[in-house]
Amino acid sequence: MSVLPVSGVPIPPGRYDGALPGRPFAATWQLDLQAPLRGQVIYVRRTTERGDVRLLGRTFAVDPLWGFRLGRCAVNLTAERIRCYALHRRQPDHRLLLAELPYAVPRRRFLE
Known about the structure:
6 strands; 112 residues
């Protein structure tokens, strides 16, 4: 049996066998589009030749010595900070902190 994601394209059987089980929503949970954003969002990006990363519609200077390489950017919406780590294929558990940058969460409201 294949799973239909939001896109409507079937996912081959066995694709989610190694995935962690999701947690169900609490019965009392309600969507509040006016609540401030919180939590963390993870992005994997390749840096430019100057070591910059394009993220959330902006360009951030990460490390001039980390050009054309992969990085992991953790955007903490609660603390309004972005932490950029180096990614290595040979040492996937070793993450060197390249930069910690300020990030102001946009104060726009969602429409209900």
